[in-house]
């Protein structure tokens, strides 16, 4: 039944589900009307590294994992599909997959947002106009980060792919599109769609019209038949496939992961910001219904669009490597056996021992945008032990966040008074205290930490009337813990100056 505002009336389901397809894992979460977690299931997927700076995922594996966690989340709470009012999707954003329309098979591994193989292609596209060639239309600099150059690389380097793309045989999508297509039927009528937040990360969408830009597509040699239909972040797209445990439940919300976290943190007014600590760190500032373009290395992106309402925009600072640095210490160096051990190890020392870790594994993103940068550890002496390295790894996240916040304040003219935080790393109290110290402002963690999935659930629930308005989202937000700065200004500035000198040692190493 339709409501007066064009949204769909709640069908009576007690809960809302969200699929959170992330960089390292896929999670299904079920929420109640207060925005509290009823059930959660998560499975990691393989990280594939074909060469230096190359990162891939097996999209078929991710689809298997999506089905698995969705069924498990329902089963673990003893729920049926009929208990769900709606389902939303949130996802790692720029990761690029192309698949065959007829078979549903990916034609190549997905190229992950961290991947740097398109550096030469981006330089070629920039030409004499430079990296800002498309910034006024897309809000983005030419960078290996975004999806458009990844599509172009695949069409240029995988035999026969361009011919098949031009014949209309293939679909491109970021991971939301891949999940949505499969979740709504796949080869049996699956919807080839994306939302405005994910489309704004491709470098192919005009921020003003919210449509694909034919000129940019032509410049990159991308047939527009490859591209999904751009929809709002909150509307009923269609029912979930008949074969699944939630058959017929409306798929009604899609948000890129960082925009979803912003929504889940109730940053719904201009000037409100959040920082997500995940595989990377992502700080978004809601700038309202007009795009604000950065002079300090930040991205302009769509924050969300609810149904027929005007789109809201954001300034974003993207940091490539934060949580994944802890995984690297675990998997590559064996300093820890589980990511959860990093805090205890870092707490065995009082400071970093003079060591600074610059994790430029995929170059440096905002605000520096240095694809030539590579990871370095600066200040090593015989005194430094693994506890100091653990602390330096955590501190790197906080230092990089300060860089982004300074750029954001310069662009917006707004002085940060409090930082809302979320994501997997915010359970690390040592990191949160250091973040407050190095910023000199309070850091606030909400009761529901996994706000990425919650934001997608909110978008889906709004579309079906499960939540009536954005006021419900604000009312649900609740503070869990606040860290107040304890460090002196002189100490804070000294550490930050040494961090900046360390970053300079990472340049020109590619």
Structure description:
The chain has 510 residues and is α/β, with parallel strands linked by helices. It contains 16 helices and 21 strands. It has helices at 59-76, 119-126, 135-138, 147-157, 161-166, 175-183, 196-199, 214-220, 257-264, 323-333, 342-346, 386-412, 429-439, 451-463, 470-476, 489-504, and strands at residues 15-21, 25-31, 37-44, 56-57, 84-91, 97-100, 110-111, 170-173, 193-195, 229-231, 234-239, 250-256, 273-277, 281-288, 299-304, 312-319, 356-358, 376-378, 419-422, 443-446, 479-483. The longest helix is centred in the C-terminal third of the chain and has 27 residues, at 386-412. The radius of gyration is 22 Å and the shape is globular. The termini are far apart. Mean pLDDT is 92; it is low at 1-10.
**What is the strand content?**
15-25%
Enumerate the strands of the largest sheet in spatial order, edge to edge or round the barrel.
15-16-14-13-19-20-21
**Sheet having the most strands:** 7 strands, mixed
| Helical segment count | 16
Extended strand count: 21
As a whole number of angstroms, the C-alpha radius of gyration is 22 Å
Shape descriptor: globular
Unreliable residue runs: 1-10
Overall average residue pLDDT: 92
> How far is it from the N-terminal to the C-terminal residue, by CA?
57 Å
Helix content: 25-40%
Query: Could you say which structural class the secondary elements and strand pairing correspond to?
Result: alpha/beta
């Amino acid at each position: 039944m339709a409501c007066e505002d064009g949204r769909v009336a709640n069908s009576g389901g007690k809960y809302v589900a969200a699929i959170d397809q992330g960089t390292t894992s896929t999670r299904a979460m079920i929420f109640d009307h207060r925005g509290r977690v009823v059930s959660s299931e998560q499975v990691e997927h393989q990280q594939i590294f074909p060469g230096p700076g190359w990162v891939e995922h097996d999209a078929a594996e991710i689809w298997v994992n999506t089905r698995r966690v969705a069924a498990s989340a329902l089963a673990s709470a003893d729920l049926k599909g009929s208990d769900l009012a709606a389902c939303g999707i949130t996802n790692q954003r720029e990761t690029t997959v192309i698949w065959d329309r007829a078979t549903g098979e990916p034609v190549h591994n997905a190229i992950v947002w961290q991947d740097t193989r398109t550096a030469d292609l981006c330089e070629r596209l920039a030409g004499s106009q430079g990296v800002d060639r498309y910034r006024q239309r897309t809000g983005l600099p030419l960078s290996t980060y975004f999806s458009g150059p990844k599509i172009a690389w695949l069409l240029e380097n995988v035999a026969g792919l361009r011919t098949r793309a031009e014949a209309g045989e293939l679909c491109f999508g970021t991971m939301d599109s891949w999940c949505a297509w499969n979740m709504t039927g796949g080869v049996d009528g699956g919807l080839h769609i994306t939302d405005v937040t994910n489309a704004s990360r491709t470098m192919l969408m005009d921020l003003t019209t919210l449509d694909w830009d034919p000129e940019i597509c032509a410049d990159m040699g991308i047939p527009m038949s490859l591209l999904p239909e751009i929809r709002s972040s909150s509307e009923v797209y269609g029912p979930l496939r008949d074969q699944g445990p939630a058959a017929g439940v409306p798929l009604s919300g899609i948000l890129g992961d960082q925009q979803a976290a912003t929504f889940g943190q109730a940053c719904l007014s201009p000037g409100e910001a959040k920082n997500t600590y995940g595989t990377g760190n992502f700080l978004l500032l809601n700038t309202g219904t007009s795009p604000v373009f950065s002079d300090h290395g930040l991205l302009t992106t769509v924050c969300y669009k609810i149904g027929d309402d005007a789109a809201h925009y954001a300034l974003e600072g993207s940091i490539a490597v934060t949580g994944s640095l802890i995984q690297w210490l675990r998997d590559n160096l064996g300093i820890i056996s589980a990511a959860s051990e990093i805090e205890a190890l870092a707490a065995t020392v009082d400071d970093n021992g003079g060591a600074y870790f610059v994790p430029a594994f995929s170059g440096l993103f905002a605000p520096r945008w240095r694809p030539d940068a590579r990871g370095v550890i600066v200040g090593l002496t015989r005194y430094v032990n693994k506890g100091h390295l653990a602390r330096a790894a955590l501190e790197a996240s906080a230092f990089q966040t300060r860089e982004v916040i300074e750029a954001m304040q310069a662009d917006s003219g707004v002085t940060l008074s409090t930082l809302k935080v979320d994501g997997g790393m915010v359970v690390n109290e040592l990191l949160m205290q250091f973040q407050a110290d190095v910023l000199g402002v309070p850091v606030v963690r909400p009761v529901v930490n996994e706000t990425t999935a919650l934001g997608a659930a909110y978008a889906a629930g709004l579309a079906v009337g499960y939540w009536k308005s954005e006021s419900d989202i604000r009312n649900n937000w609740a503070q869990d813990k606040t860290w107040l700065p304890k460090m002196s200004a002189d100490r804070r500035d000294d550490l930050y100056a040494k961090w900046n000198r360390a970053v300079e040692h990472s340049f020109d190493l590619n």
